[in-house]
Structure prediction request, 339 residues.
Amino acid sequence: MLPFKSTRFALFTALAALSASVSSAQMLINGAGATFPQQIYTKWFDEYQKIDPSVRFNYQGIGSGGGQKQILAETVDFGASDGPMSDDNLAKAPRTLWHIPTVAGAVVVSYNLTGNPQLNLDGPTLASIFLGTITKWNDPAIAGQNPDVKLPADDIVVVHRSDGSGTSFIFTDYLSNVSADWKQKVGKGTSVSWPVGLGGKGNAGVAGQVKQTPGAIGYVELAYAHQNKLPFATLKNASGVYMSATIDSVTAALAAATIPEDFRFSMVNSPGIAAYPICGTTWLLVYAEQKDHAKGEKLVQFLKWAYSDGEKFAAGLDYAPLPEAVVKRALDRVQSIKY
Prediction:
């Protein structure tokens, strides 16, 4: 009979070997792209591993531009983007590439001012700030919308994304919608030539820059503003109502959106009276025909779970779940994926 210590050591060794065996048998599915939905995707992957321990998702938040490039190069199993791929980019795909919508969210305009006052802003004023034509916090265009706020004469420090970003796409799509000057001089895209400002990598990078820089203003996904305890502006919507970013106001914008067959759509400056104006959906980019049978099967199973059980986690993380009618359409698309 083995001594107690030897028995314990043998048992420990056996358990370690078993753990290593399970780990090595675990299928790894790689994805990369948008930081906008990273909070909910991380939650989904953690929860799904409890359902199916045989698969593990490795997701890198490198920005939507990077996600589009990597899925086109097939260096990942799925991409993620907050900006829909252009026709030209889709044409570069080796086979049919689908946009699978997941959740909707808000891009908020955050700032760093003493006392964290609540600001009202409209679209043309915001465009002028990011164009660099409004440079002081006490500019009449800002002061006129905030008569009860004592605004400093400090310089405005613009902060924008430095990487290819779906959050930037949503933000510049909005500015192009509300400002002819912005549309002509800058336009919309995951990457644009910013007229002024400092760059930050990812939503986290912009949030960090705004938090650390007095007088700064930047755009971030709602969850990052909450996590960093940053104030964010109430924005005038298409109906002339100043609206704050909430799950309800994002849902109202989503309800007014027209969603085409390929799911590529914009929901900025929605006509809904209760809609927040800078909203967007986010997509997983998935090939209609999967090369790897086993991975394709696991990916489809995960997507089905995301729509049936994952959407319930959205609101708690500052995202709006998709309406039932959109979920049904998206599920039909998922079930058409071949592997």
Observations:
- Confidence is low (pLDDT under 50) at residues 4-24.
- Residues 27-104+280-334 form a domain with the D-Maltodextrin-Binding Protein; domain 2 fold (CATH 3.40.190.10).
